[in-house]
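@channel sequence for tomorrow's demo:
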Amino acid sequence: MIFPYLKLGLRDGVMLISVFIMLGLTLVFKWSVWEFLSSIIAIIIAFSAGRMKPDEKNVLAFLKK
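structure tokens (generated this afternoon):
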């Protein structure tokens, strides 16, 4: 590994590839800087939402008593 202290995983690699795809689309279709930044922010929000784990709380536990 080139940078062993970074500890990048599969999701980080996919996110990096998607950022490069957005950069390519920006260059090909001549998007503005704001369109590029908004697409990158949307990617970051989507990946952070995908990492969220549901709570394991039993919401209906009071009904079992």
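heads up for whoever presents: The chain has two helices and no strands.
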